[in-house]
Amino acid sequence: MAPALAGCGSLTGGYEPDGLVLHSQLGGSTPGAPAFAAAVDTFRERHPGTPVKVLSNADDLQQVYETSKLAGKEADIVLVNLYDKSLAWTEVGATVPVNAHMKRWGLRDRVLQGPLREWTDGEGRLRGFPYLRTNWPVAFNTTLLERAGVDGIPTTVDALLSAAKKLRRKGITPVTIGGNDWSGQKLLLQIMQTYLRPAEAKEVMRTGDFSGSRGARRGIELFVELRRGGVFADSAQGLTSDLMTTQISTQKAAIASMLSSAMGKVPRSAAEHITVGGWPIPDDAVHEKPTIMRANASLGMWISPNGEQKIDRVERFIRFMYSEETVSRFVHGGRDMALRTDQFSTEYPLVAAGQKLTDNDVSEAVTPDIYVPAAATQPLIQATGVAFSPRSDARKVRTALEKAYRSAGA
Fold it and tell me: Which domain of life is it from (predicted)?
């Protein structure tokens, strides 16, 4: 344990018996980081008797928190996504269930039903206080589509294949995607669901039985058809989500399936040419309209065993974060909220456009984050590169995905 702790400078002084320690994923250039920093400053001003210390980590937060928990020096409140390792935290006692606190503090009605449902595990334990959620719509650069002679945004697979050919003739990348990371994994699993009802989609993602489901097989075959039809960027298997965002922002690509937080990074010079919608579907899809995903299990506030010992201070901070004043900071900072609010961002028009999509515009596919077993998450992302590789047929894609589950013991 000593060498592990020595390598984690962020743990130094992480335990403050007389203060409140927050361990947050909202740091650096992360969308929402300025809103969080401003909120913490305001809280400090209003509660000078409650010293607040903030520890920041990005992708390695979960590992750092688990290490600090083993040392008994974990933060009081952890602000991180419900994803991968954190799926098991409440079950193993790394964090505490918050059902009773949510009820006693009268905050349940502040939360949308989707996030409440997804933050509750199979044993009925509410794992944390939902805070942020994420829309995952599709950005269409209408100016580039028009330049290629495409009439309107494609809403069907046939229209998408046709648009891809026209865009390529003009030297424009049709669909940019991070085929080498989580963004490619999400789009692959979204397309796989073309012929799957939600219950079956969840079961396939839990078990990794992509061959045993006729709907999953057909969805993967459709994915391969789109790839062979030139829909995705050349060498998509080597691209990342950051490169995808860059290509949309510089108007080098016409279409991208993007997190709303990534859309918040698109400059106005490009955003004014973009219409937000859903992923095109074939006529025989189980969905009625083009699909998007909504990640209800995005960032929330978890209470640690140390935080349970300071529950009065924890309550004070969580109430402050749930206030409409603080929520407004995040909305206008370009984030989607898991909480009820009538506000929309004026500074981030693409984020607001995604928030305004309704059942009249799009159908909702299942977001895989809480259904893919934690041990299979990273192997599945690595297998996604096989799916975007030019020579992979549908069987090879299924084999790679199923091998990812087996290698993780899932």
Answer: Bacteria
